[in-house]
Amino acid sequence: MTDFGKIKNYDRNKGSGTIAPEKGGETLSFGKGDLQQEAAEPRQGQRYGYDTRKADDGKMQATNLHQPEQAQQGKVPSGQDSKDAEPSQQQG
């Protein structure tokens, strides 16, 4: 099940950061490898979806982080071609 939270911080030099769950609870850590889009650097306050797993130290950690807004961009409704999704222009 995907949870959602906001990025508290991200250190690009270390390649790690923390996310605060929207539902409350302890802040979760994550690493660059946990980002589904590694090229996109998370910024403080951005909303991300994530899964959780238990790390080797026994603490819960965020994994499979993704931005829900980006997941909706570029999607074409089922059964339509991308050319059909754009409004047609009448020439007159």
Q: In terms of topology, how is this protein built?
A:
Blueprint: E1 3-11, E2 16-21, E3 28-31, E4 47-54, E5 60-66, H1 68-72, H2 82-85
Antiparallel strand pairs: 1-2, 1-4, 2-3, 4-5
Description:
The chain has helices at 68-72, 82-85, and strands at residues 3-11, 16-21, 28-31, 47-54, 60-66. With 92 residues, the protein is mainly beta. 14% of the residues are buried. Strands 3-2-1-4-5 form a 5-stranded antiparallel beta sheet. The chain has a domain at 1-5 and 34-68. The radius of gyration is 18 Å and the shape is globular. This is Cold-shock protein. Residues 1-92 are annotated as: Disordered. InterPro entries: NA-bd_OB-fold. Residues 1-14, 50-59 have a biased composition (Basic and acidic residues). Residues 61-75 have a biased composition (Polar residues).
Give the structure's gist in a few sentences.
InterPro entries: NA-bd_OB-fold. The chain has 92 residues and is mainly beta.
Count of extended strands: 5
Question: What is the structural class?
Answer: mainly beta
SSE pattern, N- to C-terminal? EEEEEHH
Supply the number of helical segments.
Answer: 2
| Global Rg | 18 Å
Give the terminus-to-terminus CA distance: 52 Å
Strands in their spatial order, largest beta sheet: 3-2-1-4-5
* Main sheet: strands, sense, barrel: 5 strands, antiparallel
Helix content range: under 10%
- Binned strand content: 35-45%
Mean pLDDT value: 81
Instruction: List low-confidence stretches.
Output: 71-89
Shape: globular
Biased composition (Basic and acidic residues): 1-14, 50-59
Protein name: Cold-shock protein
Region (Disordered): 1-92
Biased composition (Polar residues): 61-75
